[in-house]
Specification:
single chain; about 270 residues; alpha/beta; D-Maltodextrin-Binding Protein, domain 2; 10-stranded mixed β-sheet; two-stranded antiparallel ribbon
């Protein structure tokens, strides 16, 4: 072997070693698992928010998008490091039971009732309780997520406020996320309750329109919390806390406010209000 050939071989080996080293480093990049509501992902928020967090901290976030109830159950099992959800009563219970370290408010948007543009049962307006009473009395089609999500929990509260045990023969639970529920509603001409963020990012509207909005009870608050390492020692609490600290910081809050579709802001940061 000539000296030149030897040097070339060494250079090749060095290049391979550097490539492998880089691959190992990438494989070992810090990461956390976040269980979250489907609305934060299906609205497109996380595609906007999480790259900004990684750029600031170097931490990857792997999202498991579920309904809020299932996300909380994931946290109870210790299968997530941090939760980003929207059912304050359930979140506070989660913390009180010792499964979460501390719940912090992050942002809000609102729920809206969508339905056929011709609004056959005349729900249009601001009163969600009155609208649901009309849907039930007319036996009109209504698609419920039926999945223990934050949206499902809110929907059930509104039915209870309407004083209706019988929601009508048109009421159907799909046991699915917000996007699939809206697809069913649009294809069948039914009514549905949705968060505004998912609705603005939903493409298959067909004849659906927003019919009820602006009711104070439609306010939709999101919270974030680290899963308690005292319950599950394997939880990456330090890295999860980095996400919590960032998302409630001025930088994280500005990133939330900066996410828009068609010029319309989807979520409104309120961690410090």
């Amino acid at each position: 072997m000539t000296r030149r050939t030897h040097l070339v071989s060494l250079a090749g080996l060095l290049a391979v070693a550097l490539t492998l080293g880089s691959s190992v480093a990438q494989a070992q990049a810090p990461s956390i698992v976040m269980a979250s509501t489907t609305s934060t992902e299906q609205s497109g928020l996380f595609s906007h928010l999480l790259p900004a967090f990684k750029q600031a901290t170097g931490v990857d976030v792997k999202v498991v998008a579920l309904g809020t109830g299932q996300a909380l159950d994931t946290g109870r099992r210790g299968d997530a490091d941090v939760l980003f959800v929207h059912d304050q009563v359930a979140e506070e219970k989660f913390v009180a039971e010792g499964f979460g370290v501390k719940r912090l408010p992050v942002m809000y948007n609102d729920f809206v009732l969508v339905g056929p543009a011709n609004d056959p049962v005349k729900t249009r307006g601001k009163d969600i309780v009155s609208a649901l009473q009309k849907v039930a009395n007319a036996q009109a089609g209504f698609v419920s997520r039926g999945d223990k999500s934050g949206t499902h929990a809110a929907e059930l509260r509104f039915w209870k406020q309407a004083g209706l045990d019988n929601k009508g023969s048109g009421y159907k639970e799909c046991g699915c996320g917000m996007g699939p529920a809206l697809n069913i509603a649009s294809s069948t001409g039914a009514y549905a309750l949705t968060d505004r963020g998912t609705w603005l990012n939903f493409k298959n509207r067909q004849d659906l329109q927003i019919l009820v909005e602006g009711d104070k009870s439609l306010f939709n608050q999101y919270g974030v919390m680290v899963v308690n390492p005292a319950k599950h020692p394997h939880v990456k609490a330090d890295l999860a806390q980095k996400f919590v600290d960032w998302v409630v910081s001025p930088a994280g809050q500005a990133s939330i406010n900066g996410y828009k579709i068609g010029g319309e802001q989807l979520f409104f940061a309120n961690a410090n209000k």
